[in-house]
Amino acid sequence: xxxxxxxxxxxxxxxxxxxxxxxxxxxxxxxxxxxxxxxxxxxxxxxxxxxxxxxxxxxxxxxxxxxxxxxxxxxxxxxxxxxxxxxxxxxxxxxxxxxxxxxxxxxxxxxxxxxxxxxxxxxxxxxxxxxxxxxxxxxxxxxxxxxxxxxxxxxxxxxxxxxxxxxxxxxxxxxxxxxxxxxxxx
Length: 186
Description:
By secondary structure, the chain is mainly α.
């Protein structure tokens, strides 16, 4: 009888064991790899902050072992997540503000971030099939700058941190894009 119940439980246990993923061990080599990539990106564009680059890439476990094209996809996905989250924040802020100037500023930002999301989605699709000429990263940077500029009148930007984070992620992606295109031409 015990053998019969073991047989009925066995497929379930196999499924559980197969679906459980072992935790990824982060070793010094992986951290060193990310640090080297970020330092290389800074040499391409000194506006990139080392701590931001390393911390951002470390949030995605695949960053420790993937090649430049994989890091480019990861960074583009992080920028898309950031832009989507910021768009949601803009909508929330717009729903609770009463000032016309602030509403106008937030609407400008919402338009810029909606465009940024679209550009990042197209860019991610192009990168997924290694079509690096489909990158629209400059458009995304323009959108973040446009949003920040909207707050020049008034009490300062409500979205300075979000705009800066998006700029950093996209600037890192631009550096990785440069490395990926340089690598594919050889």
